[in-house]
Amino acid sequence: MTVVGRSWNRLTVPGKLIFAGLPILLVMTVGLIVAVILLGGPVLDVLSDNVPILRFVVAITAILLITIPTAFLIIYMEMKIIALMNLRIGPDRVGPGGSLLSVVHGLKVLMKEDFTPTGADPIVFTWAPVVTYLAAVMTLLVIPFAPGFFGQDLNIGLLYFFAIGGLSVVGLLMAGWSSYNKYSLLGGLRAAAQVISYEIPLTLSVVGVILLAGTLSLNQIVLNQGGWFSNWYVFQQPLGFLIFFIAATAEANRTPFDLTEADSEIVAGFATEYSGMRFGFFFFAEYVNVFIISALTVTLFMGGWNAPFPWPWDITLALDPGQLGVMLLILVAVVPLILTVAFAAPLWMISARIKGWQALLGGFVLANLFVVAVIGAVAYVGLDWVAGLLWFLGKTYAFVFLFVWMRGTLPRVRIDQLMDFAWKWLLPVSLLNLFVTAAAIVIVDSVKS
Amino acid sequence: MPIEPAHQSADDPRVTLDRELGVFEPVPPYPPRTEREAEFYTLGDGEMFINMGPQHPSTHGVLRVVLKLDGEKVVDLDPVLGYLHRGVEKLCENADYHQAICYTDPLEYVSSLFNEWAPVLAFEKLMDVQVPRRAEYIRVLSSELNRIASHALFLGWMALDLGGLTPILWSFIERDEIVDMLASLTGQRMLFNYFRIGGVNGDLNHDFMSRLGDWMSRATVQIESGNALLNENEIFVRRMRGLGTIDTATALRMVMTGPNLRATGVPFDIRRAHPYSVFPELEFDIPTRSEGDCLARYLLRMDEIKQSLRIIDQCLHNMPDGPVMAKLPRLMRPRPGRAYAAVEGPRGQYSTYAISDGTDQPFRMRIHDPSFIHLQSVGLMMPGHLIADTMAIMASLDPIMGGVDK
User: Fold this and answer.
1) B164 and A407 in contact by Cβ < 8 A?
2) What's this model's pTM, rounded to 2 decimal places?
């Protein structure tokens, strides 16, 4: 038996399917590109007739792909920020400032042995991480990143979000049950109890927003919050925002509610028996979840991709590089040189110790930064989605930082305190919030009419 | 399903199994030896065993606890000791008096100086040695530093067992500075082996003194900032308050000493109750608390750090001149007799009982270790609490497995 044959035999059934499917997908993609180039019109016509399907496929692919850098970035943020809070240095070897360490982690996880413990249920054991990961990723489909930048603008977007997000607990329970390990079982059951309990205040806390917005579509909710930052729902629903934030933390199993993988109590909870990429999927799902709950908090309460202030100037940039003709070529050749020298000159003059080539190098870097800044500013002003994406990501990563900060600071609560908090505090308070909101809406409407 | 060996090629990594493995089966392979064992290893309705340790992340070393659980609630538990047993007492009986001291170092490896001090005191009593005053002051100074290092480590582990990531790294900064300065004094970072019969190994040196002065100038602020992270943390306080409560009578019955006893309200401190060394000359308070729960044990240790700083300050001001080692024969043969000495360590009473038969080796040597004694009471504290609390209770008692297993 050859090495290839042996490796093939060791693959699990889904592994075999993926390995068989990948080349087919690749051939299909390349074939499509070749067909568009060679045939042109007819193929493009077929594609344009089926824009919804095309949009769906592109959105799914983009969302699957975007999770990877997102998770890497958040893992790196967590490693570095917690290190700084712990007065450590943190990762500093791989890449600038250790920024590639999470990529190396990902590769390491891929290369590790993927085994199933004796006595585990192999099918459930294999599918548990997939369920958890997909439940996390699929919720990204309805989140509006920027004007026009969303997978699908569902009119039941929020409902879809909670429905799919709630599926992740199934994956955790599957993992806990199928591992044939009592620590895993405890972790899985904790996950079930915790996530289902916190689902209720989580959902009730956003009902206030739904009442105010009058829609379940996340895109519409964001549009309603446009204009000045005082329109954001956090100012009309401060209590709802707090409840939502706490419940979402529990929902994503983050400190101080990370009981499902409490390493000092039940080793690693549901992930105890997992290794290799199956563990990697759980790991990824956790960090994607952090991004998602931050994104949803921003979308519902912090104005989504709206800037905190309306853009005061109505600037329309009408740049057509074609008008310049030959001048364009000359500009492309001359402007970088001029900029480099212009930025190098003050560097060279500022100190006698800076050598000529160092000044030129610094000038080159500064010139590049300047050009990037100018292009960025132009894009921010000229393109809606650039501004929206910048604001959305900025706010979202501020919340991600908050989650990381909490992880660095807080100890873990106990399971009975967790349950008490959900049922005795969050649930009544969220009901009160809902009641007050509904009453306020009725009163305001009756006063207006 | 077992794979037939005939179909299994030589390079197949799968192992043939003739029986189901993988799930922890705590019942010993022998029939139960005592009634207690028979009772414990019989499962009631809806109960299950879970095996904590010896490889568990937070059992403070290689302690194994078999927990009988009802859901998450601990019904009963059976600690299994001995994974780190080295037979230190027997080793000491086969070494001469000087060599015996270095065997006691790794008992409780985070507070080595106290482990040395008890046998050194006992041997000095056997031999009627007069220790120079400077040596006594150096002993007090270095051991109080070691007490702070040990308590700092306790703070970190306590928080880590409750899920806090940061305090352990902050307290390790404290511990590292102290351990570094002790290393410049004694030559080692962990197992110092510094105390000798009749004095200490070396005089104070410039490196140690400069490090100590540097650290003392900011110690209070650093420790306060580390404590503030936990003392004012609602989650931490709520989890610790009323947890693992033990009353004074029970604590005395379980022979608790040190901070764990003082947290129940008994102001018993060997430094005051049975003074040794130069402690009668030093001013310090014995902090006590009356609650007897995990929070009291934690706060009490934090108070002790402040008292230790006071003692160090006084030692530095009153440090006399003179030799650091008494003049003694190289080979020591004490008269036949027995001696007992106890010191107040960061965990409680460290004591040594040594019998001499006139040769250069102790005839018998018995070491009393507080970790072992305190670990007995987990059976009283843990049942009825949740799994998460077992770790907190264990951490609040602060056992070190090196000392438990000896």
Assistant:
1) no
2) 0.82
